[in-house]
UniProtKB/TrEMBL annotation:
It comes from the Eukaryota. One of its GO terms (molecular function) is protein serine/threonine kinase activity. It comes from Diplogelasinospora grovesii. SUPFAM superfamilies: Protein kinase-like (PK-like). InterPro entries: Kinase-like_dom_sf, Prot_kinase_dom, SRPK. This is non-specific serine/threonine protein kinase. Its EC number is 2.7.11.1. Residues 37-408 form the Protein kinase domain. It is an enzyme of class 2 (transferase). The lineage of its organism: Eukaryota, Fungi, Dikarya, Ascomycota, Pezizomycotina. It catalyses: L-seryl-[protein] + ATP = O-phospho-L-seryl-[protein] + ADP + H(+); L-threonyl-[protein] + ATP = O-phospho-L-threonyl-[protein] + ADP + H(+).
Length: 417
């Protein structure tokens, strides 16, 4: 299909994926699994799935249903890999590990036949808004202690996964959700009050012809939660979700499925063998972003979308990148050109960049020196991030190492759960 032939009132996922092998066309009030799950609203969409708020008519609760692309749902294409990962962490993880509750768990799974093929459907708990949206909405209301606790909870989640022998592989703010108390147990009328009504816009062909088979009749904007639910006092716990790029430590993938550029580790950029250390790198990036509200290696309109640009930023912010890595990458074709200085003047060594972010200064007087208490917190944060962002993965801290770090143990006097 040609997406340019369609007129869409509001933005949504990639329209050219509504074809055989692509997305399943989902509409409000659709029923799945013989009527058990009723679609209520849209939670989001990614490159390989759409995610929906649904009512579980069997258990009388609200759930999240992830509907995977048909071509990625086949077992031969790894469609069952997510299920295998999720079952493994639920069935084999230590039930007493404090990080277990910070990881999303599988409730149900099934396959759905549609006009575009057979789709894997993964049912999970309904949790709440993602960290990306919350930190944007509450940029000045989530204090640094709160953000620090979120960082510590993410570390617990990562430590739990690693103890299960699993690497998450795609840690970024869109895959971290705040848990809203009892939202999964709200009545149907209650949940409809807690989230925005479905915002729909019709899809029409510009030539006036009927829609192609398998195309949506209308698009739905991602829902918004009621404004009162964004009170920081209700946002005390996060969960790590989406295992679409996860893998077992014992069997690293040969084909790299990379996270957003600003979270990519050196081994992902250079296409070295992947280990659990990629999660530690992502933790460092997301912690920096949480505390400062800025990206470390790039930002929304300045994301380093080429490896040679990102490598130069590694060099500028963190220090040397082994020359033999660069030489081997050029020889193998991983790099097409030498790392270059595009926009490099916008970046500084880590300590200076963290300092310039405003960490530790009084909001009403940015010229004041760092007070003693803030100076200690600055040093703790800097030391923690430095441990997570070691260029050589073999020398990077482990989740076990980081759990003993003063930045983590001091989060809310150690009460990070």
């Amino acid at each position: 299909m040609d997406p340019s032939q369609y007129k869409v009132g509001i933005p949504g996922e990639l329209w050219d994926n509504y074809r055989p092998g692509g997305f399943h066309p989902v509409h409000i009030k659709d029923l799945l699994k013989d009527g058990r799950y009723k679609i209520i609203n849209k939670l989001g969409a990614g490159s390989s799935s759409t995610v929906w708020l649904a009512r579980d008519n069997h258990n009388q609760c609200n759930v999240s249903v992830k509907i995977v692309l048909a071509r990625e749902s086949d077992e031969a294409c790894g469609g069952n890999h997510q299920l295998q990962i999720m079952r493994h962490i639920t069935e084999n993880g230590d039930p007493n590990h404090p990080g277990r509750k910070h990881v999303s768990h599988l409730l149900d799974s099934f396959y759905h036949e549609g006009p575009n093929g057979r789709h894997l459907c993964i049912v999970q708990e309904l949790i709440g808004p993602d960290l990306e949206f919350v930190t944007m909405e509450l940029r000045f209301e989530l204090n640094r202690d709160h953000r620090r606790r979120v960082s510590a909870q993410l570390l617990l989640a990562v430590d739990y996964l690693h103890s299960c022998g699993v690497v998450h592989g795609d840690i970024h703010k869109g895959n971290v959700l705040f848990r809203l108390a009892d939202i999964d147990r709200s009545t149907l009328r209650g949940i409809q009050r807690q989230v925005s009504s479905p915002n729909k816009a019709p899809i029409v062909r510009k030539d006036g012809l009927p829609l192609e088979k398998g195309m949506l009749q209308y698009t739905v904007v991602n829902l918004l939660y009621d404004g009162d639910m964004y009170d920081p006092q209700y946002l005390n716990q996060v969960q790590l979700v989406d295992f679409g790029k996860s893998f077992f430590i014992s069997t690293p993938p040969k084909l790299h499925r990379t996270p957003p550029w600003s979270y990519r580790s050196p081994e992902q950029v250079f296409r070295h063998t992947l280990t659990e250390a990629i999660d530690i790198w992502s933790l460092g990036c997301i912690t920096y972003q949480l505390i400062t509200t800025d990206f470390l290696f790039g930002w929304m309109f300045q994301e380093p979308k080429k490896p040679e640009v990102l490598i130069r930023r590694f060099q500028r912010i963190l220090g040397d990148v082994p020359e033999e890595w660069i030489r081997e990458a050029l020889e193998s074709g991983v790099l097409k050109k030498e790392p270059h200085d595009k926009d490099i003047d916008l970046f500084q060594p880590l300590e200076a960049q963290l300092l310039d972010s405003g960490f530790g200064f009084e909001a009403d007087d940015p010229e004041r020196p760092i007070p003693p208490l803030h100076k200690r917190n600055f040093d703790l944060l800097l030391n923690y991030i430095q441990k997570t962002l070691v260029v050589n993965a073999e020398q990077r801290a482990t989740s076990e190492d980081l759990l003993a770090d003063p930045w983590v143990t001091g989060a809310n006097q150690g009460r990070v759960a």
